[in-house]
Amino acid sequence: MWRLLFHWLVTKPLMLLFVGLHVRNPERLPMTGPAIVVANHNSHADTVALTSLFPSRILHKVRPVAAADYFMSSKAMAWFSTRCMGILPFDRHARERGEDPLTGCIEALDRGCILILFPEGSRGEPERLQRFKKGICHLAKRRPEVPIVPVYLHGLGKVLPRGAFLPVPFFCDAFVGPPLADRPEDTDAFVEALEGAMAKLVEGTRFPEWD
Amino acid sequence: MIAGLRIDPTVAWALAALIVVLVVAEAAVIYLRRSKPERDWTELKLRIHSWWVIVIAGGIALVLNPIAVLVVLAVVSYLALKEYLSVVPTRRADRAVLLIAYLAIPTQWWWIAQEQYGFFIIWVPVYLFMVVPAMMVLRGEVSGFLRALGTLHWGLMLCVFAIGHVAYLFVLPEEGQAGPGGAGLLLLLLILTQGNDVAQYVWGRIFGRHKIAPSVSPNKTVEGFVGGLVITTIVAGLIGPLLAPLSWPMALWVGALMAVSGFFGDLTVSAVKRDIGIKDTGTLIPGHGGVLDRIDSLIFAAPLFFHFMRYFYY
Predict the structure, then answer these.
(1) Has this prediction a pTM greater than 0.95?
(2) Given phi > 0 = left and psi -120 to 50 = alpha, else beta, which region is A141?
């Protein structure tokens, strides 16, 4: 209920009036789970932008995977993260305790959820792509039948970069790619294939300078 | 003319005439698709559909309420500025300055709604000319300073100052006077500049031989420009005296002025797009591109028309 309220009162108006998100190939977005949407990560606005692309009737299936140590750090934050954003908390330190960090993601996929994942880990330098982390490879290996759809986001790092409080309006773009066809077993090769697929989405596109 | 609204019969007729023009255009597209099915008419169809939306939304605003007209124009200004700032290079250090730049719109529209001509006319060229660099200096980033400052201020002149003139036109006539008033002036300006675009395009497509500015806009031809100039001048002579307190010789001058200034506004935005390396400034208006692509011919025409009318008639 909170999520729908947030969707209609905050996410949609924000994306429509304030940001103005232009989506290329929206038909490529998975509308049924299980599926994994991977995107580059520059801003908290990324999650809001990506969830805004899904219709409200399947919103409960859409789960952005987010670091538990940050998004569940306080009671208020945890309430907002889980109730309004519907995040799936990801424990970055599970492996140190000998636990399986992907259990939550696997369970959600088996329930037919659409996971939103940022393989860069945290928000990097705005509008610059960092190396992808390996978690996505393990997830892909354990659920090889689940499609992985890459989305390249541009501009949201300008709207609300890391460390900024006030958002500034800019038009933003989301480039949706076809499901990843090449999924090598080797983790390094997988990361490279995914990075290559992301880079291909914006091949030939010129973005204005921003630094 | 803010308080009390009556829809003037001339304005109503002008709106009806625009709808007739669109119906004719739709019929023309159907004919073209039948006679030349091998060519792709999708963009033309999208363009005309976008025109329907613009004419109907503008018509509703005109009938509804004068405030609605000002709000619509403020939104146009906002979208244009956002488009501009999204395609030009900007500096991360200037984020706060950009927010202030956006605030130029509600403040400028406040002067317009209050009919404070004195503040309206100097707000961007004097006050923001000072406030923007002052804020940038306080941010302390000197690398790329001149470029950032010049880019931002030119964008404000374009999207806030020039488009602000369209809005002020609406409140220019005294309240309570008979006649089409501000709505008439607004419609005349929009019909002449946008009609000139269409006339230029059509004449260029049919008779175009000699490129007029090949490095800036390869589609513009001398024949298109002259055709636009002739048609816009004639149309101005016909409808100018109806929609504005213009005698017909003066209306002819207005028509020529709009055709020439519209042409240069269009070319200027084209040159900016070439410089940046983009084709359209945005994707908001199907078939046309962005908001800036649609209003490019207004950037010089609106202030010129406004000051022409203000000097001679108000």
Answers:
(1) no
(2) alpha
